[in-house]
Structures are given as structure tokens and as C-alpha cells.
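Dear Dr. L.,

I hope this message finds you well. Following up on our conversation about the binding site, I have prepared a predicted three-dimensional model of the protein together with magnesium ion. For your records, I am including the exact sequence and ligand specification that went into the calculation, followed by the C-alpha cells. Please feel free to forward this to your student if that is useful.
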Amino acid sequence: MASTENETGEIVSSGNFIQTIINEDLEKGKNGGRVHTRFPPEPNGYLHIGHAKSICLNFGLAVNNGGICNLRFDDTNPSKEDVEYVDSIQADVKWLGFDWEDRMFYASDYFEQLYEFAVQLIKSGKAYVCDLSAQEIREYRGTLTEPGKNSPYRDRSSEENLDLFTRMRNGEFEDGSRVLRAKIDMASPNLNMRDPVIYRILRATHHRTGDKWCIYPMYDYAHPLSDAVEDITHSVCTLEFSDHRPLYDWCLDNIDYDAATHGRPQQIEFARLNLNYTVMSKRKLRELVEKKYVSGWDDPRMPTVSGLRRRGYTPESIRDFCTRIGVAKRDSTVDIALLEHCVREDLNLNALRVMAVLRPLKVIIDNYPQGQVEWLEAENNPENPAMGTRQIPFSREIFIEQEDFMENPPKKFFRLTPGGEVRLKSAYIIKCEQVIKDEQGNIIELHCSYDPDSKSGGATSARKIKGTSHWVSAAHAIPAEVRLYEHLFLTEDPDDETDGSDYKSKLNPDSLQILDNCMLEPGLAEASVNDRYQFMRQGYFCLDPDTSPGKLVFNRIVSLRDSWAKAKKS
Ligand code: ATP
Ligand code: MG
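The resulting structure of the complex is given below.
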């Protein structure tokens, strides 16, 4: 259902159509009033923000309806799966704030049962072993406009099928030489119903079952039956599975899984999340990692949950985002500025405001006593007075931002200029007396004077000064590396390859900028990975795990300029 705007222009979630379906089911007493959902990742990559939408939806529906939600790994494709992914997925779901309690399952837990179900299908004449090659199966399948042709193996007897299927399991046949197919309808207008393959022979070591199996069930067969085994009531998935729903239902209809006691899962599709300036396909994200276009799955530019976490996003902001985008039946693309807006809103109230100079320019205050240090009081967050104040040191030599001084300023430049004045945040008013340059004409330091009565509470503190600059005391400053990020891609829709271009050709070469000579106020030496700060005028920042004892590294989570809020106002 579409989101709507309230009077202040904020997007508000207006409930969703899946909740409406659940309300109707609860009214009818369907499933005995139970609501049981699941989040079913395939452990073949790290979770991304699209998965976060599915997680919030599935766990959210459970929570909102007094139900429960399982975490189930759909691990039916051992060649692409790995425990690294199993571990990262658990960490990400927990970090997002959801709890599967004791209900973490694996489709591979059901391999024996899925095999028994297949035997049932064979015995009732609804599945057969087919010896056509993959290529031949494709040829026999027909097209959207032409019906398929029956496989010459379609009419094998149950006995023969059972014998062959047993021998498939026992490893008597080569990979790819035979498959088990559901016997449905080669003339069905839905290609998924033209005798789909439900088991294949594959000698691959599975991360959980090892070499126990050399046949593996296909996703479209394993998924509905895993849902049934787990007593799932509402099986929520993305729209591309709409055409698979008849097969989902066919599996449930043709297997005796004791629906009377288990109830019957219902597949419901919703639109996946697409974000501009990024790619979301696991294949592409994996390629970016493997070909080292990014530093890893958790590169702070990646749309992965681990990337967003490292970047400094809070779980609250991601859940807020997932609520605001709502749940719809039609595909659309969400502006990444909304995601950034959500983290800004969260941090605006909660982040400590500190001073950090990213591109330092030395300022010497000639009339300030040599060796003197004053500890001045600074507000921790003017939006949230409960956060209190802290003391910051002031001394004769300080750093200001290079861009806060201009020798030949344009009209509306309100910071330091030759002979001009600026207020130092939480400290004094200074005046620029002299500009020192090197031989190449680069400005290397400024000499200033200060007005001793201009600090808070002083006789001249109320003097009207247009500009305020942030600063740090040179003797007390903590050096740090700061990493600034831009969108990973230059174009809004990097997936659009209609002009024959590859998505990688649209990578933004300036998506990472490293500033390695930043100066921070001394309290930041105490920062830990879970702290988030507003560096005044520069944005929100957090410590990066690359920090080592000798070297602090900070990530910019997001700048202060809120293009989302701005677009909403205009
Ligand atoms: P794959 O191509 O590997 O299957 P996938 O993105 O579908 O990739 P899964 O691990 O199968 O990955 O996804 C787990 C769940 O998350 C599925 O229910 C899927 O529908 C949902 N999901 C995946 N991508 C998105 C997305 N962009 N928006 C919302 N839900 C998504
Ligand atoms: Mg999938």
C-alpha cells in the first residue's frame, strides 16, 4: 500500500495489504488464529538493505499479531553457500533487533523428509525420473507462445521411477545425467508448471550435511514444503515469485504433510526494495567484493547490512526507513536520500556534538599568554539539553578549517578574512592580523588576536559577529584519518544496461575520499565503535574498525545537508 504524506511533509506508513490479509484470516479463524512467518535467506551472500525490508516485514508481522517468525536458511544449493554467510546473516538479523528465539532452521534439516515427500509423489504417479539433458529439457519446455512436449521418460512406471530415484540417491549416476521432475502439464501457460525439475544430482559438499547427499531438492520444491513442515501460515516473498505460486500450491496439494494438523501456508508477494545509486543483486555485490572494487562485504559504501553498520547506521534508523517505505504490490525505486534522512533524524537527537577540523589551518593567537590552557564549557547537543556539557581546552595555538579562511572572500563569506573577525565556537572572538605563506604562495598559518572579554559571560560576548568557526587546540588535538563517502555509483540506475554498458563502468571513482591529517578535540581519544558523533558542520561520524592503537580512523556516516527534507519542503 502506498505511503502518504502528513502535514509536515513526512512520509508515514499507512499499514500494508499483507496486514489486511492477516486481519481477514484472523477474523475467519484461519490457522486457528496463528500467525507464523519466516525469513528465508539463502546463505550465498551477505544481507543487504532489501533483505532488511523483508526482515522487518516478516518479524514485524509476527510481533504485531502476537505471532512468531522463524529464521530459515534455504540451503539447497551447496555449490554457492558457505558458513561465513550463515554466520553473517545471524549477526545481521540480531543487530537489526529481531529475535528468532529457538527457531533457527535449515532446509537441509528436512532433506530426509523432502526425500520421503518425493517418494510419495513418485508412488502416486506425480513425479518421474527424466534422462533428458539440461539442454534437451530446455528444448522440450516450449516457449511462452508454444506448449512444451512431453519427455519420452514421462510415462515410466512408479516402480521404475522409485528404483531410479533410489539409485540417484545412492550415487549410481553421474551429475546432471538424470533429474526428478514433477508430472504436471507440459502445455500449461505457466512455464513453471511444465514438469519442473524437483531434484538434481550434484556432487558438492554441503556446509551442513557434508557428503551425505549427492542429490539436492530444487528451491521451488523445497520452499513450500519447508514452510509446511514449520507450520508457517503466511509465506511472504518478493514479486518475482508470483509466477511460482501455482507450483508452491501444487506441492502442498499433492503431498500428504498432514495439512489438517499443520494448517496450510499461503504465499503472498510484495515489491522488493530498489534504491537509486546502488545495486542490490547479490551476484553484483559479490562481484564487487571478489574483484576488489570495494574492500569487502562490509565496505561502508555497500548497501549491505554489515556495510551500513560499519558506516555507522543505527538499527533504529534502518527500521525507521523500512517502516517509511511501506509495503506495496508494485515495484518502485526509493531515493537513497530517504535512508540518509532517517539516520540523520536519529542521530540529530542522540549524537554528541564535537569539534573536528578535517583540513587544518594553524592559527596563532599572539596576544594569548604563552603556555596558558583554559578549559571551556561546550554543549553536548543543543537539541537535547539532557546530554549536558563537556570541557574543551583552549590555548594559544589552534587549528581551524582551511575553508574557514579566505584571503579574497566573495561577498557572502562570513568567516575569517584578513583584518576580519570570527567567533570561535564556545570560546572567543578572534581577528586575523597576518597571513603567513610558503614560497609557493600557499597559506601555512594565520596570526590572530583575541578579544579576552568575548567568551560566554564576558563583557563583549554579545558583540555581533556574523560567522562562527569550529576549532581545536593544537597542543591537545588528536590526529586522525577521516573517510568521506559518496554514492558508490554515478548514475541513478546502474542496473540499467540497455545501452550495452556494464554496471561496473558506472562506479563512482570518488566514492571514497581519505583525509589523513584531521585534528579532533581530545575527548575523541576515548571513542568506541558504538559511539556516534556530530562533527560540527561536517556531518555524523563514527569510529571505523580499522582504528589501531596508534591511529584513529573515522567514517562519515552522512553529511548534514538533508536533500530529502529539502526536496519535501520545496
Ligand atoms: P538470490 O538471487 O540469491 O535468491 P535474493 O536477494 O532473493 O537473492 P534470498 O536470500 O533468497 O536472496 O532472500 C531472502 C529473502 O529476502 C527472500 O524472501 C527475498 O524475497 C527477500 N528479498 C531479497 N531481496 C529483497 C529486496 N530487494 N527487497 C525486499 N526483499 C528482498
Ligand atoms: Mg532468493
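In brief: The chain is about 25% helix and 25% strand.

With kind regards,
A. P.
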